[in-house]
Each structure stands twice: as structure tokens, then as C-alpha cells.
Amino acid sequence: MAIGDRLQSIFQKETDPHTGIVMTRLTDPEITSHHMYFYNRMTSSDGKKLLMCQERDNGRQLYLLDLVSGEMEQLTEGEGLADYDGYLSPNNREVFYSQGGSYYCLNLETKERTEVYRSPEGWKVGAAGMSDDFRYMAVVIIKKDTLTHMDERSGWDNFAATCLAKPLCQLVYIDVEKRTSHVVLETNCWLGHAQIRPGDPDTIMFCHEGPYDLIDARLWLVQKDGSNLRCCREQPSDLILTHEFWLPSGEKLAFVYRETTGDLIENIRMIEPFTLEEEIFMECSPYAHFICDKKYKYMVGDSQGSDLPIHLLTEEDRRKLKEGVSNDFLYLVDVAERQEYKLCYHGTSWSPEYGNSQDTHPHPCFTEDNQKIIFTSDKSGRPCIYMIDLKDVPFAN
């Protein structure tokens, strides 16, 4: 298969037996499929096209899926694709993605691609964050010879080892239009999840990556010129802070606060990026990931049916989770009410067995038109992409 080839995906509707919510399975359970990382812009403005990945005979490649007709168009080919790191541009005519150490911009009409950034020789390129107008990009790169133990397809085995290795990382800022870049920060610490503040391309959020009990603190901010490097909050070794994102206005960053000892409190919190003032927004179920829609009307989170963090689950733990109903539900949060509602049982195994530790993470997110929720689960076989239309959700209307 090659770029431009078209396939047909057969959609299958099902009703959640616990909530009665109707969902649509978008992909074949015999083929590993997933959408992009959950805070990436991956749907068209009208919510009718989805940027996704499938693993076929030609390996993992990006496809653009029509959410009305089910037609899929292949967008990439060859090896070395970063299969979670694609973005659909605000003009809906371009896709940005990473392959073989470079970031490319693909014109969806002509299929012509241009190189936006190439990592230096000997450096591994990581996931990128885009400014809201797609003019700028922030990316973490890692010096390969400081990751001699690394095996990308070995699941969670390398999570702690990579953190403890303290690899040499750079946070790089890229001008997409001018094709120029500069190093914002260099440090012997595993960095990740660079995200540019909406409406303020000078401010970058990033994390110190690794197990919660090994890192010094997860949440960090810096200006694009490297100034005002700041830790957002202290993080004791028994506290999990995770999957941070910017609110659409850029006013605050949001994250889940989860205690592993004591009262085991779990809540959503927010931080103002310059005063670092922290707000407790609401209590919540044990979300592994969560995000809000573009209107800041709803949030969606994927709860975890185990007290153990995902990276500590054994194969036996995962088997038990998949065999019996636990608290592995998606929850919809009404922002104005500060109230969560059970949406559906996502039923994923959280297993890295398909080749990437992220493959079975639900990573729920909203389409750009705020009308649908997309998530991934292997409850029906191999990882599949599912969609929930909010018009079919009684408490969302």
C-alpha cells in the first residue's frame, strides 16, 4: 500500500450495558488502531475527519478517516513513523507528523511534504507541541548515546530505567514558517510533553518524565528564550501529578492530583502559569488522562480500575481487569456544575502487548466541533477506536 490509497472501515454501533450510552466502533478489532495523542489537534474543524494510525502489512502508518462514510486515506509510508505524534492543521489542509528524526508538513491535496525540522545527528526526536495557530512547535530531543538501554517496543520495562539514566535532553523551539529553531533548555533529565500555551506562544509547559516516586517534580514552565524556568509545584514521592494540559483560553493548566498514601485524595487542580496559584477544581474518579473540549463546557476522563499506577500493573493484574468489570469507565464532567457523570465502560486492558505501551490507553478527547468523544480500547480484540456522539448522551443535552 502507498500514500493516497483508500480503504473502507466498517462502523459498528453498540450500547453500553452499564449506562445505555450508544457508541460506534470505528475500526476492525483484528487490526491495531489508535488515534493521536489526546491533546493533539486530530480532527477537522467540522469534526468529520479523524487523523489516526493503523498497523497493517506495511507497518504503522497514518490515515485520514471520514467519520461519516468510513473511507480511509493513507497519508504516510516507510519506516520510523512516530505513530502518536500527528496533528491536523487549523486550515484542515495539512498534517504535521514525525518520521525518521524529522518533522514534516504534508499537503493533503497534493501529498507533497516539506521538512519543518530535522534533529541533529545522534539525537532522538520526541513528541511535539504546537501553538494554537500552528506557527510554532516545541519538541524534546534526546541524545541517543545516553539511552543505550532503550528498546522502544518493550512496554513499561524502560520507564524507570530511562528516568534513572538521566538522559541528555533538549527542549527545542521551532518557527514552522521560517524553518528555524533554537534550544530553549538542555539538561540531564528525561523531559517530555512539551505544550505551548494557547494565545501565548512564548510560554512552554513540559514535564520531568518518569515514575512519580523517582522524579523530582513533574510540572514545569519556561519562556521560549529559556528565561523564567520554574517548577509549578512541589511533588512528594507519594504523590502522582499527571496528564497536564492547557485550558483552551491558556488562562491555567489543569492536571490530576492523586495521593498514593493517607486519604488517597484524587481531584482535578489548576495552576495559573505566572503566579503559580493553585486551585482545587473538583473531586474526581481515578483518571489516567483527561482533557476538556474547546468551549470549556465539558471534560472527559478515563478512570483506572486499579489502585496501582498503570506502569506498575502486572500481566495478572491486567488479566483480572479485562475479565471483570472494575472502575474502568469514561466519565464526562460538566464544567459549570463541577460534576462527573459515568459515560461508558471503556474496558481496556492497559497492556503493552501490541507493541507500544500507549496502544491500549483510552486517551479520550473531543472532536474540534465539540460534538463527539473519541477513545481507544482493546475490549473487543486488538486496540480499536470508538466514538460517542454527545447528542446521544442524555446528561449532555
Describe the protein.
With 397 residues, this protein is mainly β. 5% of the residues lie in helices and 43% in strands. It is built from 2 helices and 30 strands. The strands form 7 sheets. Strands 1-7-6-5-4 form a 5-stranded antiparallel β-sheet, with no helix packed on it. The longest helix is centred in the middle third of the chain and has 9 residues. The chain is globular and about 50 Å long. The N and C termini lie far apart (43 Å). The mean pLDDT is 93.
Question: Layout of SSEs?
Answer:
Blueprint: E1 6-8, E2 12-15, E3 22-25, E4 33-35, E5 49-56, E6 59-66, E7 71-74, E8 87-88, E9 94-99, E10 102-107, E11 113-118, E12 123-130, E13 136-143, H1 157-165, E14 168-175, E15 180-188, E16 191-196, E17 203-208, E18 219-223, E19 230-231, E20 239-246, E21 253-259, E22 266-271, E23 278-283, E24 287-292, E25 298-303, H2 315-323, E26 329-334, E27 339-345, E28 365-366, E29 372-377, E30 384-389
Antiparallel strand pairs: 1-7, 2-3, 3-30, 4-5, 5-6, 6-7, 8-9, 9-10, 10-11, 12-13, 13-14, 14-15, 16-17, 17-18, 18-19, 20-21, 21-22, 22-23, 24-25, 25-26, 26-27, 28-29, 29-30
